[in-house]
Each structure stands twice: as structure tokens, then as C-alpha cells.
Amino acid sequence: MDMKQEFLKGWRIIWWLFKLFGFPITIPWLMYHFYDLIQFKRRSAALRGKVVMITGASSGLGEALAHVFYNSGCKVILVSRRKEELERVKNSIINTHHTIPTHPPMVLPLDITDINALRTEVDLIIEIYGQIDILINNAGISYRGEVVSTSVDVDIKVMLTNYFAQIALTKAVLPFMIKQQYGHIVCISSVQGKCAIPHRSAYAASKHALQAWCDSCRAELADKNIKVSVISPGYIRTDLSLNALTGNGQIYGVMDKTTEAGYSPEYVAHCILRAILNNEKDVVIATFIPKFAVYLRTLCPSLYFWIMHRRARKAVKES
Known about the structure:
Layout: H1 2-46, E1 51-55, H2 60-71, E2 75-80, H3 83-96, E3 106-109, H4 118-129, E4 134-137, E5 143-144, H5 152-180, E6 183-188, H6 201-221, E7 226-233, E8 245-246, H7 257-260, H8 265-277, E9 282-285, H9 288-299, H10 301-318
Parallel strand pairs: 1-2, 1-4, 2-3, 4-6, 5-8, 6-7, 7-9
């Protein structure tokens, strides 16, 4: 009987503490998330019929984004160099999601590094759809190598794909967005665009550049109702590291452990959808350590540099 009374007494204390501290936190939290859910559904409905152009749509995150936006009722344009893979993605989308009305995805085989051809392809899309509402610059290439042994040609190739091609395509689309007085530019950057790490110099540099260009672009186009979002994911479970370039231009061909343990493309795609619906301007999708590194680089750069030095030295010893 004493044990039962002690047990009940313990629960009363817990219940008292919950009423004192739990309710003031839990109830506003539940109300906020309930409101956010309603707003999310309302904004999602507004996406129906929007024309969404996605580069790098033949695999990985681009493929996941294609599924997410098509399922939201968008008219999806799939862009990549690999036509066969784009057709596979298109068939997968149609067979997976049954939307009413149905807008079959458009397949657009295109090498975005062929900068002079971009305006012609954009004109073709405008001819068919009459508009482009959202451009998602997702195509990209990664890199693994040391600064001193990396050919400048590799630096140029990475910068061409991850920076110059992205802004060239955006500039081809922008006149139409300005004319229609609405548009949303979404650039998929990386946490490494905010804080560089050893052996990723060309990749980090290209993402740094993209981040800076978007910040300037956002400010200049705000009065024209053009939104600009930069999404900086951490590691995603895709073939990015497998297809990365090495310092001599060869394919890296290795799935990094960090990449293998990363977020699923589907999870990141849903986060990006939510960021677009909420008009978030700068979003980091990563675990605690990469997010902490971003703040550390800003608040205590000397400590960050020391940690990166240790990391570079460790990598040399292990190689």
C-alpha cells in the first residue's frame, strides 16, 4: 500500500510539473504546427498548374523533386543531358502519381553548360507553356582533390557547371518572369557553399559563388516580385560523390561514407517544397554538426581554421 501511495504521489508531482511548465510550451507549439499545416495545404493548392523547370532531373535529388512537384499538380519540365534517364523518370512519375488534371512531364534533353543554346530552349518552353513559374537549378558536379595537384581545367569545368551554367539559365528565364510579374528562382547550393572543407576547393568555390550571386539577385529583383531561394543541403544519399571529378579530371567513382549515410533525396525534396511554399530565402538542410560549422566559421573563424587544418592533415595520413 505504501508503494502504491508513493507511486501515486510521484505521478502527482510529475503532473503538477507538466501543468506548470508543459502546458505553456506544448499548447502554443501544437497551435503553431496546426496553423502551419493549414497554411501548408493552402499554399500547396496554389502550386497546381504552375510550370516548374528542374535541371539535373534524371536522378538523385532532381528526380525526387520531379516527383514532389508533379504530385503537387505542377507542370514539370525535366532537364538533363541523359534523355533515356529522363524518359525513365517521366514514366515513373506518371505510374506513381495519379493527378487530376494530369499534366504529363515534359522531357528536355539539354546540356546546361552549352550556354549559347539555353535561350533557344527557354523560348521553346515559353512557346509550349506560355510561362515558367519556378526554376530549380539543381544540376551540378562534385569534386575530390588537392589544390596543388588539381588541373585548372577541372576548376573551370566545375565552375562552369555549378555556377556559370546556373546563372546563364536563370538569366534566360528572368525576362519572362519579369514580364509575367512573378517567378521563383531556386538554387541548390551546399553547406560547403557556406563553409569550405579540405579537398573540395573547386566544388566549394562554385557554391560560394552561386550563393553570393543569388544574394545580389534577390535584392535587385525583390521589387519585381521575383523570389530567390538558396537551399544548402548537407550530405544526400545520391551518386554525387561517385560522379565527382578528381584533380586530373577523372571520375572519382567512390561512394563516400558520409554521402552513403546522408539524407534521402525524398526527404530533402520535401524540405525544399516546404521552403518554396514558405518563401524561405536561405535554407540549410543538414544535421547538427554541419550547421554548427557554419556558425563556427562566422563567430570563431580561428577555431574553424584549426579544425579544418587537423582534418586535412588526418586525410593525408589516411591516404
